[in-house]
Automatic annotation (TrEMBL):
One of its GO terms (molecular function) is transcription cis-regulatory region binding. This is HTH tetR-type domain-containing protein. The lineage of its organism: Bacteria, Bacillati, Actinomycetota, Actinomycetes, Streptosporangiales. Keywords: DNA-binding, Transcription, Transcription regulation. The keyword 4Fe-4S does not apply. It comes from the Bacteria. Residues 31-50 bind DNA. Pfam families: TetR_N. InterPro entries: Homeodomain-like_sf (IPR009057), HTH-type_TetR-like_transc_reg (IPR050109), HTH_TetR (IPR001647). Residues 8-68 form the HTH tetR-type domain.
Length: 200
């Protein structure tokens, strides 16, 4: 019986090293030499397991963004449609979105995408998917909510949550987070059937 492939283990090791390098040196300062040194491998190993530079960066983006999608799905699973909106707000403004080293990687990749059309498209695909998933959650919880409106709400929620996360290292008082969460709740409550909605 042959030995099990080490490719998955090696890829994980390389991606962790790449994330550390991008967090420390930025995207432009992250070289294959630095990734190889951090991973304890040669440059040829990096290329063997990860492919070319673009393939490595794509895999790194998936490595840092996928856990957020998985955590959001876990936060919403098991809830009835009407209960998913409070669960969504709790997720977007809760400890799962607290800043960590992955945020440095995500921000470096987004910054790098300003000069890389291919990477920009890759990142846009992820955030567009997030927007669609949140919009679908809104429509399922609020019958009669139109697609365009749900997408606008989804985009606003993403901007509120990610903007807050980006500013979290600054010494704003804790009331700012509570204020952003309350604003998100108000925005969603305005979608509920009632006099305010009927009058539009």
């Amino acid at each position: 019986m042959g030995r099990p492939s080490l490719a998955g283990e090696r890829r994980g090791q390389i991606l962790r090293a790449a994330a550390q390098s991008v967090a420390r040196y930025g995207l432009a300062g992250t070289t294959q030499e630095r990734i190889a040194a951090a991973a304890g491998m040669s440059r040829s190993h990096i290329r063997h397991y990860m492919g070319n530079h673009d393939e490595l960066i794509d895999a790194l983006w998936d490595h840092v963004i996928t856990p957020y999608f998985e955590a959001m799905h876990a936060a919403l699973n098991g809830h009835a449609p009407q209960e998913r909106l409070p669960a969504l707000v709790d997720f977007l403004f809760g400890p799962q979105m607290a800043r960590n080293e992955d945020d440095l990687v995500i921000e470096a990749l987004i910054s790098g995408a300003m000069h890389d059309l291919r990477l920009r498209g890759r990142i846009y695909d992820s955030y567009s998917r997030l927007e669609r998933e949140i919009a679908r959650t809104v429509r399922e919880a609020v019958p009669g909510c139109e697609s365009a409106e749900s997408l606008q709400i989804a985009y606003a929620l993403i901007c509120l949550a990610f903007g807050h996360s980006t500013l979290a290292p600054l010494p704003f008082p804790p009331s700012r987070q509570a204020g952003m969460k309350a604003l998100a709740v108000q925005m969603l409550e305005a979608l509920r059937p009632g006099e305010g909605r009927a009058a539009r």
